[in-house]
Amino acid sequence: MESKVLTEQGQRCLQGLMRVWFEFERNLNRVPIVMRLESGRFTLQDYRKLLLNLRQQVIEGSRWITRSASSFDRDYADVRSVVIGHAKDEHRDYEILEQDYVAAGGKLDDILTAPRNAGTEALHAFLMYRASQPNPVDMVGAMWIIEGLGQKMAAGWADRINELTGGDGSYVNFMGYHGENDADHMEKLYSLLDRVCTGDKTARDIIRTATVVSRLYALQLEEIDND
Amino acid sequence: MSVYITSTGSHLPGPPIDNEQIEPLLGYIRGKSSRMKTRILKSNGIQTRHYAIDKDHNTTISNSEMAALAGAACIESSYVPKQKVSMLSCATSQGDLVLPGFGSMVQAQMKLADVELHTSHGICSSSLMALKAAYTNLLAGEHDNALVIASELASRLFKASRYEAVDVENAIDFNAEFLRWMLSDGAGAFLLETAPREKSFKIEWIRSYSHADAYPVCMSVGRTHRSNELRTWQDFPSYAEAEAAGALLIRQDVRLLDNMVKLGVDGFLRLIDEQRVDPVNVDHVLCHYSSDYFRSRIFEMLTMAGVAIPEEKWYTNLYTRGNTGCASLFIMLDEFKATQSFKAGDTIMCMVPESGRFNTAYMLLTVVDGA
After folding, report:
1. pTM score, whole prediction
2. Which of residues 283-322 of B touch A (CB under 8 A)?
3. Model confidence over A196-217: pLDDT tens digits?
4. Mind giving me the DSSP string for B241-278?
């Protein structure tokens, strides 16, 4: 494997992002529903609850990415192009998620009408706020967490959920499919790091946003059991 | 006050056993050749290893005897007579007896009088725990020398009869068989002193990060393969029932193994952040990885983080001495010292990522010539 980023600043920022990611993975494993998944005590009902709670964030996901794109001015037109491409790839993903929910025995009406949980509210509010700032390069940190999670779901969770709930693969399409695109998205993220990470402040901002997003994402999953 | 590794020693039981000889020695489970063996051996890259059992499954040397021989070899090549050893610190995954502590048995075997005794229990990283206990004892001025021994006799768990004792409905899955093709036996020893001798290694620091609160058990003896089974081996009415349920097999949850790589790299990045180590200044890397597969995964991720240490600086004897669990790093440094070229001032980064329930241990050494 080659180095993913080429500039010294980009490399330092990537190191910081890797640390945030490893910490996030540990924090995820401390969330009760993920703990049940990892320790093999995860039910189909858990899976439906997970999808129900993920849907709002997945829908809002395309909004904060497009909002970010529109906040980049002409000096960042190249960055904007990458971000738009990314948003386009994902903005209908929630439909697959809804089909999975129904295939897993859920009622379509339930998932369509479910409100955001408290963690989703906080996550969404933070993402929209950051995305609305001029030239929000720190959103690379948010994308790092969300895309990394897509890969994690595809590489680990989809099969695990299928195995633990005795499924035939018919209701884990969102998690499985999500990973296919995300590997490509990660490559684009690495080049974005080189592009936008030109000083210590930018690196700090990117890492800070990744840290906040990872905390709020974990909160969103914690809230699943509070419903 | 500084602490130095002034002597090393090791013991590997019996002749080297190549890949063809493993299964005839450990036995064919229910008379059948393993279907997983070739794949696992190819992935770990180990060519030869040693076992403390023979093909009739007699134990040829006990764990404490192996430890004592490694300790004796270490003392023999040192300046400290056996009578002057002041502390004994031992590590193993599984002693010959469940109780008392492994250290007591090793002390008796070595006939060491009046030592302060420590035993650390765990899996691969337990040797660095034992080493750290001795190191901090010397730093605190409690002792001026300590003998540290790490020893493993895993092969007793791999006898075909162990697997045959499991009820057929509790099928031997990949996780239960995996380690049969990974682990083998051996012992290593270090002598610590507060002043260097020739070709000594100054311990700059020892640090470990444990993540048991965030991850499930990954390597175990004492549980069945059923994740919803809450009983451990001692909770069954009899040991025979525990064995039939598969609770005495050594297991590796291979699904979780990739976390080891991430946590190993995470720990390394923390050490860099804490300015305990600068990868640019590392001259040699001794890393206890369990298989060649993980070596390349660790490498990839260190490269991604931009902190890779060039491959020519990595030394291992995994491929010829086998994966001897907690003894591996000690056996590695002993052979490194005897066969590799290094000079005063060289730094040696040691890493022991343990998959048991995810503990990653690190140590930095500097070569000192006190002669």
Report:
1. 0.94
2. 299-300, 303-307
3. 998 999 999 999 999 999 999 9
4. HHHHTTTTSEEE-GGGTHHHHHHHHHHHHHHHHTTS--
